[in-house]
Amino acid sequence: MYRNITDFLNDWKYESENTAKVFSMITHQSRQTVLNENVRSLERLAWHLSQTITDFGYRSGLLTSDPLDKQPIPESMTALTAIYQDYAEQFAKAVHSKWTDSSLTDEVDMYGSPWTKGTLLRILITHQSHHRGQMTIIMRMLGLAVPGVYGPTKEEWAGMGIPAQE
């Protein structure tokens, strides 16, 4: 659970920038590929992360509506990424302007359960990290490069002239 706004905003900036970086490496050809019926496409996962921002924002009172609810997936990853980045920024600004450190222990109704605002912020970050991890595995399976998020990728190690760890 987050106990101060600044810590969340710092983490959110890092995490949302890296999520957009992952989105930017998804090709037009690979975005709709479904590996099997139990695995979402890359664009569906990217759109889910975008919709989660507005859903959490609306349910918690940070946003007055959920503008992405029932909206179709944009036609390009460029458009989807721009929408994601816009709402990630709007979410951060709303947290900064509407919540305080002391309000992070206040509860909001999330899907029929009481969550503290600090818990909601933690879940938003971990939910995004979870799905971003799924996306990078799918990207690897499709032969796409992936960016390093919490450390260099194999390709980034090679670019530094260092053998990748096994």
From TrEMBL:
Short name of one Pfam family: DinB
Record-linked InterPro entries: DinB, DinB/YfiT-like
Any one GO molecular-function label of the UniProt entry: metal ion binding
Sorted UniProt keywords: Metal-binding
Binding annotation for a divalent metal cation: 48, 127, 131
Family, per entry: Belongs to the DinB family.
Protein name (Swiss-Prot/TrEMBL): Putative damage-inducible protein DinB
Organism phylogeny: Bacteria, Pseudomonadati, Bacteroidota, Sphingobacteriia, Sphingobacteriales
